[in-house]
Batch of 2 targets.
Target 1
Amino acid sequence: MVYVRQKAIPSWKKEWVAEFTELVKKYRTIMIVGIEGVSAPVLHEIRSLIKSRNGVLKVIKNTLFSRVIDNVKDKCKNIEKLKEHLRGSNALILTNDNPFSLKLFLDKNKVPREARAGDIAPKNIVVYSGNTNMAPGPILSLFNKLNVPTSIKEGSIWVTKDTVVVKKGEVISQDVAELLRRLDIKPIEVGLNVKVAYVDGIIINAEDLELDLEDYRSRIAESVRNAINLAVNAAFPTSESIKVIIGKCYNEAINLSVNAVIPLPETLSMIITKAQVIAKTIADKAGLK
């Protein structure tokens, strides 16, 4: 039995599908990102960051975006594979950026938020010494409970010593979360969970978008050193190797001149010194004075 829809498709759904169909056609790179646990204010900040790079971030409805994929699959090779990642709460980033560059940008621009009880500290969380601009009151008991030393000066609470209230990897308690909130310390960095990218007909999974820049820098530096070493040893002049080649040739010419006793202005004193050392050695062995 074939299911026949009884109600007409709402106009807003048709408009949504039409809008996203045009967006997918317009941009070179499509990235699906998970937004579970990302608050609306944080999402708004990330949307502004994407916009600054001439991109678009849109929250999507999985079933409707599946319709969009069906609309463009004849023109966009392999785009149907994106359906495999349409689970949970998602958003779409559309841009003409390189997807690897976009992933690095997202990783570097995570948005700080307040700590919540149960969060895991991503690093040592420190309450630094100084004026809290908070009036003395019941909050003092919270400072004392968490072993944060304080004093009262000029009508406000001052922290007298930098204090680690939570170590990296530890669970943040309700008391710590409350103190950090009152001090306006936001230690938790929130970002989008990149699931997959699509560019020029190619599907790139999240793990393949991870780049270890330090490793790449190290490899490039090693390759440059090896290339210069090869150019020097092969006497192949380049802008990077010519000075080293000339220096190497000069030193070899000096050594040849000295060892072959070919007097040159640069080597005459070295030849004489070498001859004197040899003569003295022979005289000593022969017992001559």
Target 2
Amino acid sequence: MHFMPDTPYIGRFAPSPTGPLHFGSLVAALGSYLDARAQGGRWLVRMEDLDPPREMPDAAEDILQTLEDFALRHDGAVMYQSQRHAAYQATLEQLIEQGMAYPCACTRREIREADLPGGIYPGTCRSGLQEGREARSVRARVDNSVIHFTDRLQGPVEENLVTQVGDFILHRADGLFAYQLAVVVDDAAQGVTDIVRGADLLDSTCRQIWLQQKLGLPTPAYLHLPVAVKADGAKLSKQTFAAPLDRNQPTRQLARALRFLGHTVPAELEQESPASFLHWAIGIWRIDLLPRVATIEAR
């Protein structure tokens, strides 16, 4: 596997502008920020505004202002995926030309009716579109190899894409580019060496590594943090009505997020400015203190 060579650390935080940041967002932002800064690295912000129907007006600006209020200051310009369609299209065409992707005419209903375990795509269009059918989407043509990597926190992960995932979507039926394609293209374009994000994205990683391999791109190091969940196990998100971060108490919420990530924080530090708190937190950041679990109830 073509992993990143010894290059300066470049991390990133990549929120979707579907609403204001909440505690779960802060955990991911803080973890990625501290890991980058503790290693003398750069920390980038990318706005994953790929899905206009789900986005809220002015959410991107609100997210960036919240990061500033919490002293989570990024390096360089913010990348917007909405401005990257030409790069995604070029990569999609490359995969099709190489036989690694193909047009698909199947509907969700047809895939459900195939009734394969986990809703895996049955490969109906792998050999070409049936007569009278038009392409709705583009799928990756996965091969029968096992993708494996070692997550810096969660440990060894492996997946056979054929039996566990199937030919996954790269370009959606609604005309939008899929997350899996865009994130791989953009991480490579930004030179990202280390990805620190929530464990809810752990299942996507093998697909992304497969794409990296097929495109001849380096594979970053991955660290998947525990995800904050509600008492019923549902992930904190805009969809589950997670409360927005309180900009009037940034240091208190930073301290709460760092405790969530297994670090001891003296109560008196909650009175510091966000910048002073983060300066202290960079110095005490340790991977071995992070809980090696996928979810933790937010309290």
